[in-house]
Amino acid sequence: MTAPTEPDPGVRALLGRWSGDPAMFEGATAEDVSGPRARFIAQLTESAGPAPRVPEVRDAGGVPVRVHRPAASTSDAWAVFLHGGGWVLGGGDAYDAVAARLADDLGAVVAAVDYRLAPEHPFPAALDDAQAAIRALQDAPPAGVDPSRWALVGDSAGANLAAAAELALRDEGRAPAASLLVYPPPDFEGRYPSVTENAEGYWLTARDVRACSKLYLAGHDPRGDVRLSPLRAASLAGLPPTIVATAGFDPLRDAGHAYADAVAAAGVDVRRREHPALVHGFYGFTAAVPAADAAVGALHAELAGLLAG
Description:
Blueprint lengths: L8 H9 L16 H15 L7 E5 L2 E6 L9 E5 L13 H11 L2 E5 L11 H15 L10 E6 L1 H15 L6 E5 L10 H5 L8 H12 L24 E8 L3 H13 L4 E10 L10 H19 L1
Parallel strand pairs: 3-4, 3-5, 5-6, 6-7, 7-8
Antiparallel strand pairs: 1-2, 2-4
Helix pairs in contact: 4-5
């Protein structure tokens, strides 16, 4: 099938409405990211819609966690969700609508980890928080769930954190039953053609990738650090069944493909779900873009199937 030459019409319409907005990381400095955070919240509120319910906020390993219960419970499985936003954006209630959608589609409880953000808390704070919260949730899971039937879900930066956390959890014998990684950035060291091909015009830009990475790293050298580049781990064997979702018009597309290929080569059950007409961010575009809504529904249905086992 021939790849589309431009994004889905619904994506184009949404990006057209945002065309007058400043670039996401315009004005960002190591001391002030208030502008990018406000822009991100405004755009996500428009594209994901309002959250249908207010979650319960609890502590897990010293980390705030927002517990979303579904409108109709159909499963005693559960999921941990790690939000995107380049390790800089998306904290607090910004992702409530996205996490609630995951809970409703799974018919299961979702615990969304509100990890610390850069630049105030650079690497490895976000990963430390994610791992501490996951371990605490495994030891004291939300009421009414089967502790052994859980999934790890992340989009963008959250997918990076999820992939890195899975390696540690695997080594501890605490791996999830399944995972969903949506347009993951699994490699700080590689150079991929899609970063150049999709550098401008598709919401996430190559400049954004560089800006948020710089804020997260805060001078740390990523070379040889699998906590940043899980793709480069000595072994990817033993990971759980994994869905890797990518978007055709995304600077991170090829890195996601490389991760899926590497995990499959390690003998892991990997489901590559490519969305050629979508862009980075589609996981949060469900209220504005019908094609994104359909894609997310299909990803969640597949994840529910993995958890049903």
